[in-house]
Design goal:
alpha+beta
């Protein structure tokens, strides 16, 4: 099965061959006469993540829908926030150890702009990350919710009852029962109607 097609004279095509979980990258000439395997790569997912089969998704969706129904019964409204937030929003909210568990996203384009050769030679990952990354994947749903409330305070009727069911990411060492990507469900009431 072709995963990418290029109509150049010489094209690189990824072929998924169900043999030992390998993906073979082949060079194929435009007249389809010449084929040569360039390399084989084992197919896997990053540690601490997992796939869900259709049967597992049916069970998960049943649970998520049950949770949604209960929240709606009590007047909660669902919101969603982006998977990534500005690091200025995320950093310092989880403590020093929590900050180390944030997945940081390299700036688009030239992530080395503004970084001197001396700073690169220092090999200081914290300093590099501060200059090369402005965004990160959310660690939980609480800090993005606080940002949401501040940003949309003029559009929200208080008390505001919200719930969220979304994935979160932690740059932790995966181990049995601990994943780098998982779903979190949060419910909060913000504000007061007392005067």
């Amino acid at each position: 099965m072709n995963l990418s097609i290029n109509n150049n004279l010489k094209q690189n095509t990824y072929l998924c061959i169900p043999n030992n979980n390998l993906i073979y990258k082949k060079s194929v000439s435009s007249d389809d006469k010449e084929e040569q395997t360039v390399y084989a790569e084992a197919v896997s997912i990053p540690k601490g993540t997992r796939d869900f089969s259709p049967e597992e998704m049916a069970k998960r969706n049943y649970i998520f829908n049950t949770i949604r129904e209960v929240y709606h019964l009590y007047g909660f409204q669902q919101i969603e926030t982006p998977a990534m937030e500005n690091l200025s929003t995320l950093m310092g909210k989880y403590g020093e150890e929590g900050d180390k568990l944030l997945f940081k996203i390299l700036n688009s384009g030239d992530c080395f702009s503004g970084i001197t050769d001396e700073e690169l030679l220092e090999r200081n990952p914290v300093r590099f990350g501060m200059k090369a990354c402005e965004k990160g994947l959310r660690y939980d749903l609480t800090v993005p919710f606080a940002r949401y409330v501040v940003q949309h305070r003029n559009d929200i009727t208080f008390p505001f009852k919200r719930y969220q069911i979304q994935p979160v990411w932690r740059a932790d060492r995966p181990q049995k029962g601990r994943y780098r990507e998982f779903y979190q469900c949060d419910g909060d009431v913000v504000g007061s109607d007392s005067r």
